[in-house]
Each structure stands twice: as structure tokens, then as C-alpha cells.
Amino acid sequence: MSGDRAVQVASKERLRLWLKLLKASRLMEADLRERFRSQFDTTLPRFDVMAALSRKPDGLRMSDLSAELKVSNGNVTGIVDRLVEDGLVVRVPVDHDRRAMIVRLTARGHETFGLLAAEHEAWIDGLLGGIAPAEAAELGRALDRVSAEAAAHMQQARKPEGER
Amino acid sequence: MSGDRAVQVASKERLRLWLKLLKASRLMEADLRERFRSQFDTTLPRFDVMAALSRKPDGLRMSDLSAELKVSNGNVTGIVDRLVEDGLVVRVPVDHDRRAMIVRLTARGHETFGLLAAEHEAWIDGLLGGIAPAEAAELGRALDRVSAEAAAHMQQARKPEGER
Questions:
Q1: pLDDT digits 0-9 by tens, A67-123
Q2: Is residue B155 part of a domain?
Q3: What range does the domain containing A79 cover?
Q4: DSSP annotation of A58
Q5: A34 lies in some domain
Q6: Calpha distance B161→A48 (Å, rounded)
Q7: Is A26 part of any domain?
Q8: So what's the ipTM on this one?
Q9: Which CATH number do you get for residue A15?
Q10: Pairs of residues, one from chain A and one from chain B, whose beta carbons lie less than 8 Å apart
Q11: How many domains does chain A have?
Q12: Distance, CA of B8 to CA of B27 (rounded, Å)
């Protein structure tokens, strides 16, 4: 195989990998969205916000929450507004900074998230039931590599040309 | 490890796999969206519609196009309307069915898609540059398994209880 040809083959193989990654992710995401909607009248972005807050018992600044969810779409402010209305989240002022607000789950928010998270895990266990744990772990490591490669390339591309 | 414990470990491993799959997919998708926007003033769903049409020189019925893109979000009718306005797509009546319309790329649509697709492939080749072709192929096969497992489970779950 000539050099040019090898480069073309590599490029096509990476494109195929991306299309398969996107297909698997969209397929599962569509199913999860539908289950959240039909069984709990809720949405995946709303679940993502609650999941992020559930990992921070002391709460998160809105700016940090938005940063953490920046690639999950959905309007974080609007989602938090509705979670507050539903009594699942509270906004509390930050002691030393009058302009900043911290959001955190209420006791009821933690309870609700616990129920949703258990169902979510069970749905995924069903969807991926044919994937053995060792296989899942190996594929997970390969996907970590994909994310790390992509993130490194994105960071590099954002630098001014002289620093590359 | 007791049976219950093994089941729990397997479930957590599958959840971790899903979260890693979603992370890799969202990370790359966010980058591609941003490049389509900043470099071509276009969107990923619009590219997806053109990609689907580029594979069918004779065109596709709107219903088949919608079905093919059902998990890619985006309002297919609205996207097609704008592609028609831009002269990249035409709607033509189906000979034997007065109510049905077929949409297909115009010559300019094919040309534009060709340029976008080449850039898209180059972006992905950059993002995944550190993944060797053999590794990409292996990971692709594992992702095919994930999609097949998920699709089979989804089909099974949609059947009435008596048929499962």
C-alpha cells in the first residue's frame, strides 16, 4: 500500500468509527429519552442536571453547572427554574459573593433522583445485557482513549498558531 | 463473588460503558457542530439530511427520509424547506402517487455536500488521529455489537408481553 493510499484508508476507518459511535449513542439515547418521557414525564437533560447536582452535596454554582453540562444541550437555567418550581432543587446565595448563587438538590430532589437513577441503570443494563462485564470494561477503556484523543486535538486546535 | 454481587457489578460496568460512550459522542459532536457553524454557517442535522440524500441518486420519499433520520433530532421538513430555498434540494412528485413527494439533491447540492463531506472526514481524521486504523476497526466492531444488542432489546421490549 502506498503512503497516500494508507492515509486514505486510515481516514476512512476513523470516519467509519465515528459513524458507528454516533449510531450507538443516538440509538440508546433515543430509547432513554422515550422511557424518561413515557414513564416519568421527564427529560434526559433534566436527569443530567440532577445527576450533576447529586454528585455535589454542597451544591454547585450555576456557572460551574453550566460548564459541566456544556455538551449535553438543553437550557440549564430553564431546567433549574423548573426543578426549583417542583421543589427538587433550591437556589441559595453564596456567603462571600452576593451576586453568585449555588444550586443544590433538596431532600426530595435526592430521593427523586435516586429513583430515576436506579431505573436509568436498569434500562441500560437491559439494553446492554448481551455485553459481558469484561467486554464492557475493555470497550470503556477504548472509548476513554477516543475522548482523550479528541479533547487533546480540540485543545491544540484552539491555541494560536505560534504555540502549536 | 455471590450471584447478586456479580449482577450488581455487571450493571455498574454497563452503566459506566454507556456514560463513556455518551461522553465521547457528545464531545466530538460538539466540536463538529461548532466547525460546521463557524466554517460553513451550517448545522449537523442539515449535513445529516444531505448525507442521507447523497446515498440515493433517485431521491427519497419524505417519509423514508424522516424514518432514516429519526434518531438524529432536527425537524426534517424544516431542514428540507431551507435546502430547497438554497437550491441544494428539489422536491419532485412521485409518478404513480399524486400525494407523495420525493426529495433529491440538485447538482449543486451534490457538489456542496462533496465539499462538506471532505471537510467532515478531515475533521474526524484530526480528532481521532491518535487511533490507529486497526484499533479503529476493532472498536467499530465492538460498537456494532452495542448497537445490535440495544436494537434487539428495544425490539423485544416493544412486543406485547405474550410474544416475548
A1: 888 755 568 889 999 999 999 999 998 877 777 889 999 999 999 999 999 999 999
A2: no
A3: 3-130
A4: T
A5: yes
A6: 31
A7: yes
A8: 0.90
A9: 1.10.10.10
A10: 194
A11: 1
A12: 28
